[in-house]
Structures are given as structure tokens and as C-alpha cells.
């Protein structure tokens, strides 16, 4: 039995601080989790406006006790929203966005916690795909909701390590190559369709936990976020092959480390850096990297970073602490910014560079 949870409204309550999570941004909609609600916003050239919001409830249990999702992912052309529970970490809850309610709960394998769900390709969320990937501390799983039973992991397309690699997050390219990061900062690169096998390349990190990853659509560049710095890593070798497709061996590149300069830390009175997940702008031409720390939006000129000019960045002050930020799909001059009490669209964040 599944309990209804929909409450449609055009106003978003903002009377108290509730952590927000920016789940997905496409050309015309943004999905934001705020406590036990999912808020849907319409995105246009004029800005962002509330569309509706629905309360998340867990099917069964204590008549569907509301919960704030640990992570969420849009799935199957915006029809579904996949939610990870903050405490019941073995379950994935599928919310039907048309019905406004949680209609199914899935597991991966019995006793396996799920750290993150990942689209099977970078554009699978909008182009449509039944399967998706799941990450646990010890491995990578291909999940197929069409499989019978509650557990949806395809054993033929899953891989677990005997020695725990402590996986944290992952991301995919346009063709489905997968990059997975760990608590120790390592990055493993997997060939599309072969995530059940060992990674092709292991890129050592700098020892700090990676909290988010992104790639350019073609997979030639990786972006990893740690608390105090970003790493940009090229994956293409001189022969044109990618580290996803063949072992890089001695041709493993040195990561490019992006951080705010001591002078700017003093200028903006930033006492502690705590970056939110960083992203490339979407679309085939990656030009910009965006992240934030405290009330500051920070954007790097990716074209300059590729030329090893690592200090070409801009800092812009937001009105409050930025919880999350992502580019509107297909552009690099419009950014959706989630603040503690509101969601807004910033324009022309990356047009004027400091240096």
C-alpha cells in the first residue's frame, strides 16, 4: 500500500531554515528538495518562478512518515524522481512526478547500501533510459527496474571489490563512460557498458575526499570537488584514446588544482573554504566551471584552465550562503542558485573575468 503525498501550491514557505538540494536543472525546469518537499520551478529567460511542490512520503511504515532525501536524481525524461532515504540506505524510492507520490521502493542487493544513483549516460535523464547505475562503498551496480522482485541490481553488470575502495560519487559521459571517486581522492575510469569489470585507469588523488564529480560530454576532462579545492584532470592521451577506454599507464596526467588565492581569501574575508559540488556548463562546448563557498559564487574560465592558467576565476557575492548551484542546460550565463530560503537565477555570472 502506498500513501498519497501530493500537495500542490504556487507559493513556497520560507519561514525557517531548511537545507536545500538542487537535484536537476534542464532548459525549462529545476527540481529542488527542501526538507520533505520537492519544489518544481519554471525556468525562462526572465528568471525562475515556482511551479508546484509535493511532499515526499515513504510508502508503508508509519503511514508514510515524511523524510528529507539524502540525494535525488531525475529519471526517465523527468517522469520519475529517484530518492535516497537519509537512514534507510539500502532503498531507492521512485516518485511519480505526474501523480506526485512515491509509488515504488527498490533495493540493489540485500545488505548493500547505496551511496549515489548515476544516469547510465550524461543525457539519459532527458533522453530516457530504464537502467541507471548505483554506487556503494565497495562497488558499481547496474540497476534495472524491469527486473522482477525488489532488488534491481543486474549481477552480470555489477562489480564489487574485495578491498573496500570507499567509493563516494560518480559521473558519466555522453557515451556512458563512468568516473568514480573515493574518500581518499582516487578516481577510477570505466569503459561504457563494462562497469562490471575492473576500471581501465586508476588516477591517484591528493589524499582528500572527493564530494562531487563531473565530466565534459566527450569525457576528455574530469572535474572533482573537494572541500577546499577543485581538481581538473585531462583523460585523453597523445594517441587520442581516453583513459576510460585503455589503461593510461605512465601517461597518467597530473591534476590541475583550482583554489582561491590567499589574497582573495583576505579580500573577501573568507575564513573557511567549503566548496559546493562544482560543474561544467552543460552543452557540447564546456567553457566555464562553477562552484560556491559560503555566500560567494566562484567561476573559473575553463578555456584558460585547459591552457594551465589556473587563476582565471571570478567571485560574485550572493545575498546568503549558497547551498547549491547549477547551470541552466545549454548555456553558461544563467545559473540556478539555491539559497537557504529561496531559489534564484543569476545571469551573466561568467562574462567579466577578474584577471
Task: Walk me through the topology.
Blueprint (H helix, E strand, L loop, with lengths): L19 E6 L3 E6 L2 E8 L2 E9 L15 E5 L4 E5 L6 E6 L4 E7 L8 E4 L4 H4 L4 E4 L3 E5 L9 E8 L6 E6 L5 E5 L4 E4 L10 E3 L8 E4 L5 E5 L4 E5 L21 E3 L3 H6 L11 E2 L7 E6 L2 E6 H5 L6 E5 L6 E4 L6 E5 L4 E5 L8
Task: Tell me what the structure shows.
This protein has 355 residues and is mainly beta. It has 3 helices and 27 strands. It has a 4-stranded antiparallel beta sheet, with no helix packed on it. It has a 4-stranded antiparallel beta sheet with strand order 5-6-7-8. Strand 3 (37-44) and strand 4 form a beta hairpin. The longest helix has 6 residues, at 262-267. The chain is globular and about 55 Å long. Residues 1-17 and 349-355 have low confidence and may be disordered.
Structural features:
355 residues; mainly beta; 4-stranded antiparallel beta sheet; 27 strands; 4% helix; disordered C terminus
The Rg value, from CA coordinates, equals: 20 Å
Class of secondary structure makeup? mainly beta
Strand content: 35-45%
How much helical structure, as a percent, in the residues?
Answer: under 10%
Cross-sheet strand order for the largest sheet: 1-2-3-4
- Helix/strand order: EEEEEEEEEHEEEEEEEEEEEHEEEHEEEE
CA-based shape = globular
Quick one: biggest sheet? 4 strands, antiparallel
| Distance from first to last alpha carbon | 59 Å
Task: Count every helix, treating DSSP H or I runs of 4 or more residues as helices.
Answer: 3
How many strands appear in the DSSP assignment?
27
Low-confidence stretches: 1-17, 349-355
Mean pLDDT: 84
Amino acid at each position: 500500500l502506498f500513501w498519497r503525498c501530493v500537495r500542490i501550491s504556487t507559493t513556497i514557505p520560507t519561514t525557517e531554515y531548511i537545507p536545500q538540494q538542487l537535484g536537476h536543472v534542464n532548459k525549462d525546469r529545476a527540481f529542488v528538495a527542501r526538507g520533505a518537499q520537492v519544489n518544481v520551478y519554471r525556468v525562462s529567460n526572465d528568471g525562475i518562478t515556482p511551479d508546484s511542490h509535493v511532499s515526499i512520503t515513504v510508502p508503508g511504515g508509519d503511514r508514510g512518515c515524511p523524510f528529507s532525501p539524502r540525494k535525488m536524481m531525475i529519471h526517465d525524461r523527468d517522469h520519475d524522481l529517484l530518492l535516497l532515504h537519509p537512514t534507510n540506505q539500502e532503498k531507492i524510492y521512485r516518485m511519480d512526478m505526474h501523480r506526485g507520490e512515491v509509488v515504488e521502493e527498490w533495493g540493489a542487493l540485500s545488505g548493500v547500501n547505496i551511496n549515489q544513483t548515476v544516469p547510465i549516460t550524461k543525457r539519459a535523464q532527458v533522453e530516457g533510459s530504464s537502467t541507471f547505475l548505483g554506487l556503494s562503498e565497495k562497488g558499481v551496480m547496474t540497476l534495472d527496474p524491469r527486473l522482477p522482485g525488489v532488488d534491481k541490481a543486474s549481477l552480470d553488470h555489477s562489480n564489487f571489490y574485495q578491498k573496500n575502495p570507499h567509493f563516494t560519487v560518480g559521473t558519466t559521459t555522453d557515451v556512458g563512460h563512468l568516473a568514480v571517486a573515493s574518500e581518499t581522492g582516487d578516481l577510477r575510469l570505466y569503459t561504457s557498458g563494462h562497469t562490471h569489470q575492473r576500471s581501465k585507469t586508476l588516477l591517484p588523488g591528493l589524499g582528500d575526499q572527493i564530494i562531487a564529480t563531473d565530466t565534459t560530454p566527450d569525457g576528455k576532462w574530469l572535474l572533482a570537488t573537494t572541500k577546499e579545492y577543485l581538481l581538473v584532470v585531462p583523460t585523453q592521451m597523445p594517441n587520442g584514446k581516453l583513459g576510460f577506454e585503455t589503461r593510461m599507464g605512465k601517461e597518467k596526467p597530473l591534476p590541475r588544482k583550482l583554489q582561491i588565492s590567499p589574497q582573495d581569501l583576505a579580500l573577501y574575508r573568507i575564513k573557511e573554504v567549503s566548496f559546493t559540488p562544482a560543474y561544467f556548463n552543460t552543452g557540447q562546448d564546456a567553457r566555464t566551471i562553477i562552484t560556491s563557498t559560503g555566500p560567494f559564487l566562484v567561476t573559473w574560465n575553463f578555456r584558460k584552465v585547459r591552457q594551465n592558467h589556473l587563476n582565471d576565476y571570478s567571485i560574485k557575492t550572493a545575498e546568503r550562503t549558497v547551498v547549491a548551484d547549477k547551470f541552466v542546460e545549454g548555456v553558461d550565463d544563467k545559473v540556478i542558485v539555491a539559497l537557504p530560503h529561496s531559489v534564484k537565477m543569476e545571469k551573466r555570472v561568467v562574462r567579466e573575468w577578474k584577471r
